[in-house]
Amino acid sequence: xxxxxxxxxxxxxxxxxxxxxxxxxxxxxxxxxxxxxxxxxxxxxxxxxxxxxxxxxxxxxxxxxxxxxxxxxxxxxxxxxxxxxxxxxxxxxxxxxxxxxxxxxxxxxxxxxxxxxxxxxxxxxxxxxxxxxxxxxxxxxxxxxxxxxxxxxxxxxxxxxxxxxxxxxxxxxxxxxxxxxxxxxxxxxxxxxxxxxxxxxxxxxxxxxxx
Length: 211
Ligand code: T5A
Prior knowledge:
The protein is built from 8 helices and 5 strands. With 211 residues, the protein is α/β, with parallel strands linked by helices. It has a 5-stranded parallel sheet, sandwiched between helices. Helix 2 runs antiparallel to helix 3 and helix 4 packs antiparallel against helix 5. Bound molecules: P1-(5'-adenosyl)P5-(5'-thymidyl)pentaphosphate. P1-(5'-adenosyl)P5-(5'-thymidyl)pentaphosphate binds next to helix 1, helix 4, helix 6 and helix 8.
């Protein structure tokens, strides 16, 4: 049976990486085979693209940036995600196509026709692979900024400040409202265990549907 594809989305530093690890552990304890991956990344080439797109010292124009994300996604989908799903694994991925629609689309104020085009090329790059479930980790940018500052990491986007992160948050809430079946919003301001429990509740609902 085909595996399930679960993506974790949201503004920067909302706890996606941490929660993917916790969810993967719980699912493995339950006997599922789990693949953890991330975007941009997941293959050797896509990890190199990641280094380029996240380098704050390397200016990129908007179109180049979109095409780099899509090139990385195409590699990742074909070589890693699709084979794992075909092998029946649960795939937990840190970001996927929704990040492109939000960061490169909605947050830049693209018009509807341009957004539709972005969706089309996104679909093309991912061979129309759609997540079975998307968990948007949501909360106030101030909270996540203080968590990130404590950690000391800064990339191209994390340098852009609170107003940018607010736009990103609004973007994710907009797409969540447009596809409530697939996209569930999780309050990521809560403590680790509470967020983990909310995530597992959604994952288990999805797995029940499969049985
Ligand atoms: N991007 C990506 C695009 O623009 N277009 C695209 O198509 C794609 C795919 C990199 C950037 O690329 C952009 C979006 C991004 O800006 P990324 O590496 O996923 O993507 O970037 P981030 O989301 O910024 O990843 P981070 O690793 O920085 O953040 P996470 O994974 O959301 O958060 P995490 O787990 O590392 O946690 C951050 C800190 O908070 C603590 C953790 O211990 C850690 O220190 N923490 C908590 N503290 C208290 N309570 C909790 N509940 C906590 N959860 C985590």
